[in-house]
Amino acid sequence: MNPILEQIRFMRKIVGFGRLMRMRKKHSLGLGYARGYVTTICLWSLLNTGLLDELREKGAVNLAEFADRNNLDLAALESVCEYLDGLRVLRFEQGVCSLQKRGTTLMEEPRGLFDLLYGYEPVFRDLEPLLRKIKTYGKDITRRGEAVAKGSGELGRQLPFLAVRELVFSNGFRRVLDLGCGDLEFLFLLCENPEIICYGIDNDAATVEYARKRLKEANLAHRITIEQGNMFAVKEAAQKFRDVDAITAIDVFHEYLSNGTDTISFFLRTVKRHFPDASLVVAEFFKLPQSWLRRIPTVTLEHHLFHSLTNQVILPIGEWVKLFESSGYQVVEKKLLHAIGHGYFVLK
Ligand SMILES: C[S@@+](CC[C@H](N)C(=O)[O-])C[C@H]1O[C@@H](n2cnc3c(N)ncnc32)[C@H](O)[C@@H]1O
């Protein structure tokens, strides 16, 4: 008899056919979630050790040679590659590794998702102490600023930055100050218009260092100036960046709403006073109702989760508009993308 058939008969005898089938269905549900966790961690480890990028560049890599060159444990590396081979992400055969189609796809648009999530990994690692009130976000746990900037840059250029850029281009803005500029990806996109000059400020040292490195590589230092600075120092910014006709802020304001809207409202009023002629172009995520996400469980689910765990408040769309209008600005243009829960506003 076929040995597999024999095994099925044996299992049916000891467990019963109906129960066996029900168990299989339930396990496959659980495995989907567990596998997502294991796969994500394996991908992070291969991204951080540089293997995935080398596979993209070279096509095939000898693992023993790679482990030796990067001082890695070959046996552990082989185990990870064997696992991902089983999931058809990689092909690992006779010591040589390459990307399968699925792996190549993961390294394209979805890569930003893995990078962004890696930025929040310290929060998920400490989720239980956070729940038990043993640790607090901001005091005992912090996200990785550089990975957050990298991930939001990678994801941003796929859609949100194009939306903001469209508003900048269509309004004819030429001198742009970007608050919380992250890895500069948005300003690189703006610079595709040769008439635009940009300034970026960000208060995170690691992010600014990373952005400076990218600026050098992009050969755009004559068009973009970046500095480490606090956007709340509005008066100083107005002296330095006197000539800007637009101030952009992509996904920055929500970081300051945990104690209500007063901080951002005061900030907006100060900006209006010191930059009376500049328009503000703001992109912010907006809260989607639970009933909506139950029907359409987009990536907004994860986005809402890691923002709320890190005290970043995402307002419903109506409250964003109320905040802008009560702070002295008129919303002259508004575009919403419910698919990603992101809104774009030109304020004057
Ligand atoms: C979610 S990230 C968005 C980065 C970038 N705008 C993008 O969309 O890719 C928020 C950025 O704002 C920066 N930031 C937060 N508070 C800031 C402040 N007070 N002054 C300047 N930058 C700030 C953070 O360091 C981070 O790079």
UniProtKB/TrEMBL annotation:
Keywords: Methyltransferase, Transferase
Pfam family, one: Methyltransf_31
GO MF terms held by the record: methyltransferase activity
InterPro entries recorded: Methyltranfer_dom, SAM-dependent_MTases_sf, WH-like_DNA-bd_sf
Record has Transferase as a keyword: yes
Protein origin, superkingdom: Bacteria
Residues making up the signal peptide according to the UniProt record: none
Any one biological process term the GO annotation gives: methylation
Domain Methyltransferase: 175-259
Keyword Iron: no
Name by which UniProt lists this protein: Methyltransferase domain-containing protein
